[in-house]
Amino acid sequence: MVQAQGTEVSARTAEIVERLAGLEGPLLPILHEVQADFGYLPQESLTVIAHALNLSRAEVHGVASFYHDFRKAPAGRHVLKLCRAEACQSMGSDAVAERIKRLLGIDFHQTTLDGAVTLEPVYCLGLCACAPSAMLDGEVIGRLDAAKADEIVAEVRA
Amino acid sequence: MTTKIYVPADSGALALGADKVAKAIAQELAARGIDAQIVRNGSRGLYWLEPMVEVETPTGRIGYGPVMARDVGALFDAGFLNGGAHRLSLGRVEEIPFLARQTRLTFARCGITDPLSLDDYRAHGGLVGLEKAASMAPADIVATVTESGLRGRGGAGFPTGIKWNTVLGTQSDQKYIVCNADEGDSATFSDRMIMEGDPFVLIEGMTIAGIATGATKGFVYLRSEYPHAIATMNRAVEIARRAGILGTSVMGSAHAFDMEIRAGAGAYVCGEETSLLNSLEGKRGVVRAKPPLPAIEGLFGKPTVINNVISLASVPVILDKGAAYYKDFGMGRSRGTIPIQIAGNVKHGGLFEAAFGMTLGELVDEIGGGTFSGRPVKAVQVGGPLGAYFPRDLFDTPFDYEAFAAKDGLIGHAGITVFDDSADMLKQARFAMEFCAVESCGKCTPCRIGSVRGMETLDRLAQGIEPEAQIELVTDLCKTMKFGSLCALGGFIPYPVMSALTHFPDDFRPRAALEAAE
């Protein structure tokens, strides 16, 4: 992905803020939209948001950094989330996660050097009766096993 | 009449390939020149059979499952459109024992109807509760909910009617209904299922809550891990608005009520009601001290009803059929039904709505059919990551708020995770501390620091370093966390840790000693 330049980031952020500022408690919806647009939260965006909502930059940074969803830097081309919660553990998610980490050569919260995939832990996708579960670019996956893990790795590497 | 084929669009079914199945069916229909309609319903909650395809026949709906895309051709050859025999045939869906044994009040329509069809919703008893509520005095609605015995299904079990009454009795220019749809507990998915499978029932329940308390605005705080539920709820709200169910005149009455769906951002602690309110306001999801109660000073400082999805989705049937009808189900002070979610290493995992009172053993062994792996059940965790681990010895515990509390556990949001005998309970206890460390909002010390120290202590125990001292330390630490934390995250993490330690002491013995003993 070509990263947007400073002035363009500011302009696009301002447009999002203007569209959503009328909501009651607009900050989270704005951060979600900015991340949906840029793939992460650029520093310039936070400045624009703070100014528009009459907040300090520290306040906006505080909110953005509190939530697991918001990124400071772009993710890889694919985002693979593996559920680490108890129901998935009971079905062997730890072993599957280790396999995927080994195949990709990265740990959780890391991106492969070729920028293909970012690996993230997630604590429950609500697919606990068909565990272990995962989410690849928003697509839900159930009954994850070694064979499916290998398929996923091949797919994101392609 | 055009044949109707049901292929669930529930996330659980999608995770197992339902979209591919629906596509394969559409292709076969086109190739064979057959006129039939594919309906994307919610899930019935029989996840070991998903994707479960149903066909409407003169003798009722016949199910097939689990169906893979590659099975579709053979199903057509077997005449499944007329309920033909096939190795995947499940017979009449209503007669599958897992469903037949349930009492579906809150989930009456889930998996049966097209989630976004208001006609379906009305045809299956929807909006009757709201119609009644619209012509009742607010105090009478609140009295009905109180009389029904409904308690908060999010986990705390606080009487819903009492909460509503406080909001009704508090004067303000603006009041809010907030639905807590931040269903973060592992083994729970009932909120997700109802929002994906019968979204109008939640809208109806929130609207009734609005009329009852004088609130005109509602928010559903829905976790970002549920993108399908977010999409379905947004579409349902739009449909309800166009149909005049939401808006300045709710179903032609003098009441105004509208609502918005808001996405969370991946913080587990936002399932705690006060941090959820902070998050909705656009702040860090940090827990607030109580008092003031949200019912008096809640969202933006205004009186706010904050209820779980299932609590609100149970209100329409209570208004429709009456408080006595609902109250008649259950035991002791736990009235009505509860959607129990059976998950993890279990043969028949899914959603089982039943009156309170079934024993844990019945649920795990009979309904759940034991483990998926076929190995013996070692432990079950009830109530998510903050719930206790129960050994088989406690399987006679009835599913009831007070009975679980008496055994040092909790029902929580009614999720059960089954573990087979390969589970290492020291590892599970350590995970509880790790989870708390990852998800702590950081406001209070026992939770923020205690969780990290707990993790380190259990690591030393695993390494066999002064085991007795570590056990004493972690027990003391759990006491501090239980009594010194501001909310249930730090306060309840001792449940999984101490239950694991109490019921499975062998797993906490030094590994070297264990190996020597074998």
Automatic annotation (TrEMBL), chain A:
Residues annotated as binding [2Fe-2S] cluster: 83, 88, 124, 128
Cofactor: [2Fe-2S] cluster
Annotated GO MF terms: 2 iron, 2 sulfur cluster binding; metal ion binding; oxidoreductase activity
InterPro entries reported in the protein's UniProt record: NADP_DH_HndA-like, NuoE-like, NuoE_N, Thioredoxin-like_sf
Top-level division of the source organism's lineage: Bacteria
Cofactor notes: Binds 1 [2Fe-2S] cluster.
Annotated CDD domains: TRX_Fd_NuoE_FDH_gamma
Keyword vocabulary terms for this entry: 2Fe-2S, Iron, Iron-sulfur, Metal-binding
NCBIfam families registered for this protein in UniProt: PRK05988.1
Family to which the UniProt record says this protein belongs: Belongs to the complex I 24 kDa subunit family.
PANTHER family referenced in this protein's UniProt entry, alphabetically: BIFURCATING [FEFE] HYDROGENASE GAMMA SUBUNIT, NADH-QUINONE OXIDOREDUCTASE, E SUBUNIT
Full protein name: Formate dehydrogenase subunit gamma
Organism: Aquamicrobium aerolatum DSM 21857
Taxonomic classification: Bacteria, Pseudomonadati, Pseudomonadota, Alphaproteobacteria, Hyphomicrobiales
Automatic annotation (TrEMBL), chain B:
UniProt keyword terms in alphabetical order: 4Fe-4S, Iron, Iron-sulfur, Metal-binding
Cofactors named for this entry: FMN; [4Fe-4S] cluster
Entry-linked Pfam families: Complex1_51K, NADH_4Fe-4S
Domain of life: Bacteria
One GO molecular-function entry: 4 iron, 4 sulfur cluster binding
Domain NADH-ubiquinone oxidoreductase 51kDa subunit iron-sulphur binding: 426-471
InterPro entries attached to this UniProt entry: NADH-UbQ_OxRdtase_51kDa_CS, Nuo51_FMN-bd, Nuo51_FMN-bd_sf, Nuop51_4Fe4S-bd, Nuop51_4Fe4S-bd_sf, Thioredoxin-like_sf
Main function: NDH-1 shuttles electrons from NADH, via FMN and iron-sulfur (Fe-S) centers, to quinones in the respiratory chain. The immediate electron acceptor for the enzyme in this species is believed to be ubiquinone. Couples the redox reaction to proton translocation (for every two electrons transferred, four hydrogen ions are translocated across the cytoplasmic membrane), and thus conserves the redox energy in a proton gradient.
Family per record: Belongs to the complex I 51 kDa subunit family.
PANTHER family recorded: NADH-QUINONE OXIDOREDUCTASE SUBUNIT F
Full protein name: Formate dehydrogenase iron-sulfur subunit
Organism encoding this protein: Aquamicrobium aerolatum DSM 21857
Classification of source organism: Bacteria, Pseudomonadati, Pseudomonadota, Alphaproteobacteria, Hyphomicrobiales
